[in-house]
Write a structure and sequence with these properties.
about 45% helix, 13 helices, about 350 residues, eight-stranded parallel β-sheet, TIM Barrel
């Protein structure tokens, strides 16, 4: 493990007001999104979509790292150039999703445990040799009647910590992603309580597994009321609750926090991130960044719809959303940017 290289990579991922682009959806998930838009659910169509993303002119101005799926990191552009080569040429660091998905947790109805630790050491070595320099593992925590249980939180925290230790051993910066889901009727206060417990537990296990905190990136949910909750707090109230929760639970040694969008609209995710950076710029010890998927990609995918003639227009939309999120990191985002892009 090269400690300084891990630290440098982690810092680079949240430097210059940039953020991460999560393009690591599994093939079944990608196919579902394609099906809704009438796009063929084929390997070729997935390749074309990913090539559209990584060849977007100027994307590296806003995006520091791209999280890929196993199929993606092995794909090539139509001209035969490896996609990972195009990503590197754009000044973007390559990352890779390494968990194998959240599965039903035995003995815990309604709860999930993320799998993928078996054989992970060898897979990480291969990805490093292919050019990846960071990785991602997602744990899913549902809120509901009697859940999450302590057993679910502990099991997912242990898996995240073991994954993170293996990543650092292999020279990859681990993205630690505990997602408290938005689905449900829970209040913002309930999400705050569970998110704080989850984060405290995760950092306890990271410490036990001797993970170097200066060489990780945290990818948490924002503190939000459930989608079905009757009370939906304002942008500023969400920003206040999220930063307060993070200050209680996340050590200052962590270089950056890159929020997941978790199903929020692109505009709302940007507005909430903007409020955090505008209201707390001098009060938090870590960079507050983004690691969005649909919140950046969705408008572009809808424009593209699988048609070559729409590629340039779709790329413009993708870059515009990326620019909105870079502005949010600076506390300079406004709804008007959704039209102008600047």
């Amino acid at each position: 493990m090269n400690t300084q290289e891990l630290i440098n990579t982690a810092r680079a991922l949240v430097a210059d007001d940039k953020g991460l682009l999560a393009m690591d959806e599994s093939n079944p998930t990608c196919n579902k999104r394609f099906a809704k838009l009438g796009i063929p659910q084929t390997e070729e169509a997935r390749r074309d979509w990913r090539e559209l993303i990584v060849t977007t002119p100027g994307l590296g101005e806003c995006i520091s790292g791209a999280i890929l799926y196993d199929e993606t990191i092995r794909q090539r552009k139509k001209d035969g150039t490896p996609l990972i080569q195009a990503i590197t040429a754009a000044g973007i660091i390559t990352g890779i999703k390494v968990d194998t998905g959240a599965k039903d947790m035995a003995g815990h109805p309604g709860e999930k445990i993320t799998e993928g630790l078996d054989g992970l050491r060898d897979r990480l070595k291969e990805y490093f040799q292919m050019g990846a320099r960071f990785a991602k593992w997602r744990a899913v925590i549902a809120l509901g009647e009697g859940i999450p249980s302590r057993g679910c939180i502990e099991a997912n925290a242990q898996a995240l910590a073991r994954y993170a230790a293996l990543c650092q051993e292999a020279g990859l910066v681990p993205i630690v992603e505990p997602e408290v889901l938005m689905e449900g009727e829970h209040t913002l206060a309930q999400c705050f309580e569970v998110t704080e417990e989850v984060l405290r537990t995760i950092f306890h296990h990271l410490y036990i597994q001797r993970v170097m905190l200066e060489g990780i990136i945290l990818k948490p949910n924002m503190v939000l009321p459930g989608l079905a909750c009757q009370v939906q707090e304002t942008v500023d109230e969400v920003a206040d609750a999220t930063v307060q929760c993070l200050l209680r639970a996340v050590p200052a040694a962590v270089p950056g926090i890159a929020f997941l969008s978790g199903g929020q609209s692109g505009e709302l995710a940007s507005a909430r991130l903007n409020a955090m950076n505008l209201r707390f710029k001098l009060r938090h010890p870590w960079a507050l960044a983004f690691s969005f998927a649909r919140a950046i990609q969705q408008p572009a995918m809808e424009i593209w719809s699988g048609r070559d003639a729409n590629v340039k227009t779709a790329q413009h939309a993708l870059l515009q959303r990326a620019r909105c999120n870079r502005a949010a990191r600076r506390g300079e985002y406004s709804a008007a940017m959704e039209v102008t892009g600047r």
